[in-house]
Structure formats: C-alpha cells, structure tokens
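Q: Could you fold this chain for me?
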Amino acid sequence: MAQLLLELFSEEIPARMQAQAGRDLERLARDHLAKAELAFGEVRTFAGPRRLTLVIDGLPLAQADRTEERKGPRTNAPEKALEGFLRSTGLTLEQLEVRDGVYFGQLDKPGRTVPVIVAEMVEAIVRAFPWPKSMRWGGGTLRWVRPLKRILCVFDGAVAPFAIDGIESGDLTEGHRFMGEDHAPFAVANFDDYAAKLRARYVVLDAAERKSIILERSRAVCAARGLELVEDEGLLDEVAGLVEWPAPVLGDMDAGFLDLPAEVIRTSMRVHQRYFAVRDLATARLAPHFLVVANIEATDGGAVIAHGNARVLTARLSDARFFWTEDQKPGAIEAWLEKLNGVTFHAKLGTMAQRVERITALAEEIAPLVGADPKLAGLAARLCKADLASGMVGEFPELQGVMGGYYVRQTLAKSSMGSGLSADNIDAIADAVRDHYKPLGPSDSVPTAPLSVAVALADKVDTLTGFFAIGEKPTGSRDPFGLRRATLGVIRLVLTLKRPLALTQVLSVALQAFDSVAAAGGGDALIDDLLAFFADRLKVLLRDEGKRHDLVDAVFALGDDDLVRIVARVEALDGFLKTDDGASLLAGYKRASNILRIEEKKDGVSYAGAPETLPGSAPEEAALMAALATAGPQIDGAVAREDYTAAMIALSELRRPLDDFFDKVFVNDPDLAVRRNRLLLLSQIRAAADRVADFSRIAG
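A: Sure. Below is the predicted structure, expressed as structure tokens.
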C-alpha cells in the first residue's frame, strides 16, 4: 500500500479560513477517491499560513479492474436506438443480454494507475475549491485564496506528474520565510520526511501543536513575571493561523491606560493588534502588559518586537482614551438618541430611532411575563441603542452594548434622567443595556436578570418579526440579517429563565408595530411562519443535545407555543421512547392509527367516542378498556400540572394490554357493532397518546 502527500503552497492564507479549508480538502479528497472506487486508510490534513497539506495512507498502486453493466433500449425500440447504444459501448449485438425485453451490456473497464487518478483529483479539487473569497493573478484562469506558488504531489515516493495553469507538480517545498540559514526549496520523499524537514526549517505543521506551543510558552512567559495570561480561545485559533514558528513575547504598556474600561483595552489588543491581555495574579485585574505572538525567534529575546508593538498599542489606546473622554460629556446620551433619527436601520423598517420605539413598547409588554418592572424595562430599552452614536462604538463596533452599559450607569447616576431611581435599579438598567445583544452565539453567556431578559427578548423579537413582515426570511444558507441566530437567542433566553412565555402573544404584539402587517389585516400567516421557524431552530438546539428532531414536531403539533413546556415534553418523550414500554407503545399506536385511517376512509366517518362493554367482548378488549379508564385521567392530570414524566408513566400502563389486544383480538369482526366498538377503543388509545404528543409525527 502506498502514501499520497499533497501540499498546496501559496501566499498567506487568512487565518479564519484555514480550519475550514483543511476540512474541505479532506472531504473533497474522500469524495473523489470513493468515486474512483479506491480503498484508502487514514486521511490527515494540515492548514497553516502558507500551505494546505493532505496525507492519505493505505492507497493501492492501481485501480482494480471493473465490470460495469449498462442498460440499453428495449428489444422493440427503433433500430437506431440499438445502433446508438452499441456505438456508445463498443459492444456487438452478440455481446448483449436480454432480460425482461431490455438489452443489457457488460463493459470491462481496466483499472488505471493511482498517480493518473490523483492528477485528475488534484486538478478538480484545486479548480473547484470552495474558498469564501478567491482571486486570480497573472494571465491564468485559476482562482485560489492567494496566488498559488507550488504543488507538491508525491505518491509512493515518486512525483505524480501533472500541471495546473502552468504550475507543475513536484517534490519541492519551502521552510520558514525568514528563519534558518537555508531558504532554498528542498525535496521530500514522504510525509515523515516532509514533516521532519519542515520542523528543521522552523515550520510547525500542525495547527493544534502551534496552539499548544503558544499557550504553554505564553503562560510560562507571564508566570516568570508574576502575571497570568487572559486566555481567549478565538484569538488563540486566529494567532495560530498567522505564524509558522510561534514565539510569544511579553511587552509593556503605559499603566496610565488602565483607567480605561477593561473591555476597551482588551478589544483594542485583540481586534486591532491580535495581542493577548495579561492579568496581575495578586489583584486579578488587567496588568500594564500585553503578549504578542511573533513568527520568529528574535536574537534579542523580543525586545525590539515588544517595543514596536507597544508603540502601536499606545496609539490605539490614546484614540480610545479620547473617545472615552468625549463620550462622557454631559448630555451625550440625549444627543446620541437624537442622532438615531438620522440612522437608517433598514429602508423598509425605518430609522434606528423608530426601531428603539418598537423595542421600548415591546419590552414593556414582555416585562411582566418575565418578572421585570415594565417602567424600568421601557427605560432600559429606550437607552439600549444610544451608544451606537458614541465615538467609542464608532471606533470599536465590537463594544456596542458594553459601552452603553458604562455610559447609562454614569448618566443615570448623575443626571435628572435617573432621578427617583435607586442604585439597584440603575445597575439593573445598565446591565440590561450591556447584555441586550446576548447571547450572540452558541458559546455566549445568557442573561438571567429579568430586566435584561425583557430587553434582550424585545430586541431579538423585533428583528425577527420586522424582517419576516417585509418578506426577508432566511433561504437555504442565506441569512444576511442573522435571523437564525436571533431565534436561537430567544429560545436560549426563555429556556434559561424557565418561565412560561406564550410565543404567539409576544409575536402578535411585535407584529402590530409594522404597517405592512396591519394593512394586510393581521399577521396570522406570519405567526405561523415564525412558529415554524422557531420549531426548526429548536430542533437544531435539541439535536446538538442528542434529542430527536421528530419529537419537536410531535410536540409543536399540539399547538403549544410555550418553549419551556415544549422542551419539557420533548425531554420526557425522548426518555420514554428509549424504554421498551415506549418503543412498544409507539409501535402499537402506529398500528392502531393505520387501522383507523384505513377503516375511516373506507367507512367515510371519523371514529370518536367511548366504547362499550358488549356481550361477548374478548377479555383482552375489556382489559384494555379498563387500563384506558385508569390511565386517561392520570394522563390528563399529569399534563395539566405539566408533569410530563408522570404522563409518560401513565401512558406506559397501556403498553401490555394494547399488545395483548392486538395479539388476541380481531378488530374487523363480522359483527358490525363489535367492529365499531373496537375501532372506538383504538380511537381512544390514539387520543390518549395524542394528549402527550402527536405520535403520528414520530419516526419508528
């Protein structure tokens, strides 16, 4: 068995694209090899600043000979159809076989050598690679994320020859751009040789290893000065994609900047300079230092690198200080609110000031539902977007909300706007402004303070209903306004708060604010669309937790729009169906439903009502009726008090009598009265189960 080593060497690949590029390279290679019917072993990919590498072990030297059956025309088809089939296959009439009046031919296909297949595979992958953004250069037609310089392609120790837009494959690659004495290209024979020679030339191939080196060495550098690294997984991922030979350097900054909010300092470091912040071990507060990851081991220990980066950081933080000072002038928030009248949110949805009015009204409606004070919620909502007009957020958009929290707390404490508010109320309003964008993603924290939840829900619901109202719904992978993220945010907020909240009520109130909905006479159709959208997002959330998506459909079908109750039902249903009783009862339900569907269609009626104990009833029939008479009230009581686990337990009591009924009783009895009575009994079984969930929507 042989090994394939492929390296696509280019100018710098953006760090944010590298991980996905590695996954795409592996996926495309697997697809091509599977299509070629080639067996293979382990597949590994590596992505870095200048190279994508693919290693495939366990490949054969050649493709196996294959026989392919080709279906031809029918024997009574026109003669020209047969002639065309023979011409396309190269077969003769005598070589064809007739089955069921159709010609079939067997084509013998000799296997090709793997290097030939690899050449075709690599060109196809390179030309169709799904970069988010790509470019052309020179006079060629090839598109790549950055100009492609080399293609290293070695199979079983030898070059697999081909060329793409004049770039010929070979066995050469390059080491670090600056480090080392020898920068000349060098040849490799296999992956082990490749990895060892790169390491000797200051290239750490594996991104995971680069991350580990950065983290360990950064911690050590900080610890030596009595400091602690402020770890940031997202920044670590990015920095690992910027360097081939990580060299952490600790730099110093002016301690006077520490009077700025910590978020401002960290954002300036992270977003603009890709620096890590550093914390003082004794005080747990930010220290006047930063950590930068260089791409070279400096002979002076990084002193020049640290000094140069400190000068850049000083300039950035000086700008931040200016904005921080300007933003705290008296009357700033009132001026910002006025400016929002001139900021367009969306051409069809009005200005940002109009959006704030909608959020304010909606937050006041939601507040009692989540345990918050409507007046405080209204004030927090009115102020939540003010910082968008501030200088600091203009410079650092990532700090929207965060800076608003600072500014609102200061303003309410010092101006007439906060008169009559207690310190606790001011803090709650400022926190609500700070957190109203949360959660921004699946890993982001979820606010739990009722006031913060009210404003965060109002913000997200206004976004959802507004864009649905103007027909801007997500389609496929396209979601330019982040509506999927907003929906997941609403779901997570409600589930974290664990308070009943009727989605239909909230969505109806929100939709009333849009003229297009009011002019159309209401938003019932839009609410249905929105509820379906919520169901889809809830499926995604619960699927990530290991729950089945069909269970969400089964519960949503009952018409309940309370997310807390829906999830409680889904979790109880999921646990129930994993038991033998649950699986058996589901099978029994399906059987009962199928019988009812067939017989109701045949009879032209819908069977509903209570069965009777008729003379000559089978014992199993009477036992099932008795079990249903006991379980029915228990199910109703459990559902009423929202104890869905108890409802499932009560439902499980029907499992054995239902199994016995189907084993011993013939439903379609010749006696029409007996038949009708048994169909009524099955309809009661169906109705009992459907009080818990719509079992017809459950797979199985």
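A (continued): The chain has a mean pLDDT of 92.
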